[in-house]
Amino acid sequence: MDPMGSLSLFPPADQFSYIRGRYGIVGRSTQVLRAKISGDDSDGDYVLKISYPEELRVPEHEMVARARDMTADKTYVLEHLPECVASLDLPQHSTSAIRNALKVDKGSSSGRVLRITAWKRLCPLTDLVGDELWKAFWECYRCESSLFPRLSILPSG
What is the pTM assigned to this prediction? Predict the structure, then answer.
C-alpha cells in the first residue's frame, strides 16, 4: 500500500464525484468522493475517503487488511471487502492541539486526526437488481456475521 507518496489522486470535477458526506461539527465529518489516479489509463474507479476518526481508533484500512488475511480462502468475503490503495494521516491537522489548549478532559475521548484513504471502488448494492441483489445481500450478511466476532468490531456495514 502506497502511503500516498507516489500516488496522485484527484476527484473528478463534476457533480457526480460526490458519493457521501455530511458537513458539520459533530462526528467525523466523513466525505466520500469518486477519484482517479493520475497516470492510470485503466478503467480503475477509486473512492477517496476523507475523515476525522479518533486518534486511538484502529485505522479502517488496517481492519480491512486483517479481515482479508483471516478470510483469504473465502472468495465470497473477499469480493465484498474493499482494497486499500493508499492511506495517509495528517497529524498536523489533529484536533489534539485545540483540546490540549482548552484543557479538554482526555477521559471523554481522544483527539481526531485527518485521514485520507483511497480505495478501489466496489459496486454498490443499489446498482443491483433481482437475483444479483439478493445474492450480494446474503453474501454481505455472511461476511459480516463471520467477521464480526473475529475482529471484535461493531457491525456497521
Answer: 0.71
